[in-house]
Amino acid sequence: MNLKNTFWYTSPDNVDIFVQKWEPKKQAKAVIQIAHGMMEHIERYENFASYLTSQGFIVYGNDHRGHGRTGERQGKLGYFADSHGFFRTADDLVQLSKQIKASHPTLPLFLIGHSMGSFLIRIFIQQNSSLVDGAILSGTGHFPRLKTIAGKQLASFFSPKKEAPWMNKLVFGTYNKKIADASTGYEWLSSDHVTVQKYVKDPFTGFIPTGRFFFDLMEGLLTMQKTSNNKHIRHNFPLLILSGDCDPVGNYEKGIWKTARLFEKAGLESITTMVFTNGRHELLNEANKEEVYTAINSWLQANISSI
């Protein structure tokens, strides 16, 4: 059992950010801050958050700009901001972390980001790695620079605040290609049919982002992969990278190893990489999610012990 509540905070540029908080009934050993992925929302992490609270963690997670209840209050899903939207969204995470540290000054704080959430965390730690005690990247990836530049330029031709289905197809159109039974178009997310059906029916998932969203996303991808930026991460920063070998975002695990090498090149000394056999994109919602949960908990416990 856990205690759950919600609250809002206002970003420096006056966007109201929705936050969920889960608390264990026993004394907490650390705090976890979750950054959800693209075209979803923090409520989808209820099961994972409940598991973490059962292990003695306090859990926070916000709906990003253009997503969930934050996007609903903004009046537009799939739109970050008029300018520098990806970086503003990453800064929202920083602002929440500062609030968490103020509320729990004696507890370690770890970040967990899935997919786009992992990209945001990679931006976060480039300038703020001293603010937190470690990070877990799930469903992350490595993206060819020239293709990303081309994607950014292409996105600039689309209307900033209108849905961009052509860009959406360009980014996600091939993700189901290796799956035989691909009736919904979202089977690449998880092999668990119940999870996929819930995703299809959820009004806050699977929407088509705007042209400006894709422009901001590409801008963020280019920034997060710059070695010069990653060299600002403190070298003893603990990092866990998780992926499934059937995840197209991680290029079927190839991109995960490239990502690990990127951080090694930047000087990080504590990188752990785990690849789960038959795992698709949403490891936290996979058929073997308990195995993933246990791996995450073991890594967290080990790093708490070393603080």
From TrEMBL:
Tree of life domain: Bacteria
GO molecular-function terms, A-Z: hydrolase activity
Domain Serine aminopeptidase S33: 27-287
Keywords: Hydrolase
Record-linked SUPFAM superfamilies: alpha/beta-Hydrolases
Any Pfam family: Hydrolase_4
Protein name: Alpha/beta hydrolase
Organism: Virgibacillus salarius
Classification of source organism: Bacteria, Bacillati, Bacillota, Bacilli, Bacillales
